[in-house]
């Protein structure tokens, strides 16, 4: 099938692009872009690549061969994705090498295998393979998961459960011809993907056209845009207008929220990929959760009168979307408190202010206002009322070392983005101990529901002299 391709993804020198320009032109507008010049000093771009520019497969086998990884069989469809196999990295490398003499895309019966979603950073924290570019540092998802589990209930947390993922930083490795079917990213997050070596071909469809790749009932999307797509099942597919681009070695592509994309490896390729969200696209996450919740409820509509109905909906939501309402709400509370604590510290009359500009303060306010906006949306959702949210005690949270470490990590990250000078984020707990901490939550330190979080946020805005 011939696609309607009517645009190219813009390519920009990342060294000449300011963070503010990236936000204005791509992040806020939700537009894809390829950034060049940002990977030159990465260890991965030296160690992981042989002298001929090919993947250094021996290094992976020798240094990381015992790691257990998920490998997609690109020739075998399983439901809406490719069939997944589990094996060690060394086994994957052996299979890759053994089939390297074949250049026919698996047509000879040998599997076309693509290592995906390897949590390399979590598994090898001391091996600094790369440095996240400043454009992608405002990463609420991974900063949070570095200090907290997404699922607060320990019974629902399993270390190797893909849903209860430890982070969303991945390494991908695949031979020429491996590919990823049409999809939009997890949580409708942003993603970025850097080619350590090799080349990729990308095909993008903007969110306003995503209905064109779904069936009449908006339940199933096209799997492969280059197959003979059934016109009766996908009647509007031929109307879709695509963007395409070729991503070269050393280039990083930014994938905005909700953009469907299909990706093909034109050469043997290694890439580093992150999924993340922040204040600019947090609404996409809530919209997805809400949509998935109503779908989950619809599947078990006949059980609506059952006492366990809402609990079943939430468990199905967590399984399908990666988090449930409770997980998301606790996430928002902690992020709201951390942003407020840092902002309160840097704007406090007791010192610690030495900002290069007010840009950082406006950034924290932006985060808090977006959290309030999402919380107002949650409040209006009827299904929220019975989902069994556990209380969060702000006073206990501030005393919790994991939260203090989270604030420290968040503060250091934002320091790199906005050049915050003279603020010691590792001392947040001590500083708060010296404050009358009750001033932070005069209406009670417990948050049970969206109304409580809105009350806390409104009080926080008053404390820092800002209108909500």
List the helices and strands and how they pair.
Elements: E1 4-8, E2 11-13, H1 19-27, E3 33-36, H2 44-47, H3 57-64, E4 68-78, E5 81-88, H4 89-98, E6 113-118, H5 120-123, H6 140-145, E7 169-174, E8 179-183, E9 190-197, E10 200-205, E11 241-247, E12 252-255, E13 260-265, E14 269-276, H7 282-299, H8 309-321, H9 325-347, H10 359-379, E15 392-393, H11 394-399, H12 401-418, H13 428-433, E16 446-447, H14 450-463
Parallel strand pairs: 1-11, 2-3
Antiparallel strand pairs: 3-12, 4-5, 4-6, 6-7, 7-14, 8-13, 9-12, 9-14, 10-11, 10-13, 15-16
Helix pairs in contact: 3-4, 7-8, 9-10, 9-12, 9-14, 10-14
Task: Provide an overview of this structure.
This protein has 468 residues and is of the alpha+beta class. The protein has helices spanning 19-27, 44-47, 57-64, 89-98, 120-123, 140-145, 282-299, 309-321, 325-347, 359-379, 394-399, 401-418, 428-433, 450-463, and strands spanning 4-8, 11-13, 33-36, 68-78, 81-88, 113-118, 169-174, 179-183, 190-197, 200-205, 241-247, 252-255, 260-265, 269-276, 392-393, 446-447. Strands 2-3-12-9-14-7-6-4-5 form a 9-stranded mixed beta sheet. Strands 1-11-10-13-8 form a 5-stranded mixed beta sheet, with no helix packed on it. Helix 1 (19-27) links the parallel strand 2 (11-13) and strand 3. Helix 7 (282-299) packs across helix 8, helix 9 (325-347) runs antiparallel to helix 10 (359-379) and helix 9 (325-347) packs parallel to helix 14. It is globular. It starts with a strand and ends in a 5-residue tail after the last helix. The model is unreliable at 156-164 and 349-357 (pLDDT under 50). This is 2-oxoglutarate and iron-dependent oxygenase JMJD4. Residues 121-293 form the JmjC domain. One of its GO terms (molecular function) is 2-oxoglutarate-dependent dioxygenase activity. Pfam families: Cupin_8 (PF13621). Keywords: Iron, Metal-binding, Oxidoreductase.
């Amino acid at each position: 099938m011939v696609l309607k391709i009517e645009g190219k993804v813009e390519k920009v020198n990342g060294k000449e692009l300011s963070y503010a320009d990236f936000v204005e032109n791509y992040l806020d507008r939700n537009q894809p872009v390829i950034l060049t010049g940002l990977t030159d000093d990465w260890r991965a771009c030296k160690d992981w690549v042989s002298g001929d520019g090919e993947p250094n497969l021996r290094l992976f086998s020798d240094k990381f061969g015992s790691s257990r990884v998920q490998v997609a069989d690109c020739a075998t469809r399983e439901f809406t994705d490719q069939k997944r196999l589990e094996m060690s990295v060394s086994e994957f490398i052996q299979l890759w090498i053994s089939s390297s003499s074949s250049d026919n895309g698996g047509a000879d019966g040998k599997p076309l295998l693509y290592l995906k979603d390897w949590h390399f950073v979590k598994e090898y924290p001391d091996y600094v393979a790369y440095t996240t570019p400043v454009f992608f540092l405002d990463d609420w998802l991974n900063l949070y998961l570095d200090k907290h589990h997404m699922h607060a209930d320990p019974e629902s947390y399993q270390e190797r459960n893909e849903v209860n993922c430890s982070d969303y930083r991945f390494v991908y490795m695949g031979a020429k011809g491996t590919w990823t079917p049409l999809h939009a990213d997890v949580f409708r997050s942003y993603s970025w993907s850097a080619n350590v070596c090799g080349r990729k071909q990308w095909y993008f469809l903007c969110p306003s056209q995503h209905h064109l790749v779904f069936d009449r009932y908006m339940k199933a999307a096209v799997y492969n845009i280059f197959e003979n797509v059934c016109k009766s099942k996908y009647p509007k597919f031929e109307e879709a207008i695509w963007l395409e681009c070729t991503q070269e070695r050393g280039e990083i592509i930014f994938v905005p929220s909700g953009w469907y994309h299909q990706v093909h490896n034109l050469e043997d390729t290694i890439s580093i990929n992150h999924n993340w969200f922040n204040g600019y696209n947090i609404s996409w996450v809530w919209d997805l959760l809400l949509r998935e919740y109503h779908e989950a409820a619809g599947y078990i509509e006949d059980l609506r009168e059952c006492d366990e109905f809402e609990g079943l909906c939430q468990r199905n939501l967590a399984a399908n979307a990666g988090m449930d309402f409770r997980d998301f709400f606790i996430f928002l509370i902690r992020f709201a408190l951390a942003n407020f604590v840092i902002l309160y510290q840097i704007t406090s009359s007791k010192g610690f202010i030495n900002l290069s500009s007010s840009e950082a303060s406006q950034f924290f306010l932006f985060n808090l206002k977006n959290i309030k906006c999402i919380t107002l949306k949650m409040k209006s959702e009827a299904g929220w009322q019975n989902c069994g949210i556990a209380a969060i005690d702000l006073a206990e949270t501030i005393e919790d070392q994991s939260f203090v470490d989270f604030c420290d990590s968040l503060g250091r990250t934002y320091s790199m983005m906005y050049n915050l000078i003279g603020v010691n984020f590792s001392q947040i707990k001590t500083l708060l101990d010296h404050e009358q901490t009750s001033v932070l939550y005069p209406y009670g330190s417990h948050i049970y529901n969206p109304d409580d979080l809105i009350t806390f946020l409104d009080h926080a805005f008053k404390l820092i002299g800002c209108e909500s």
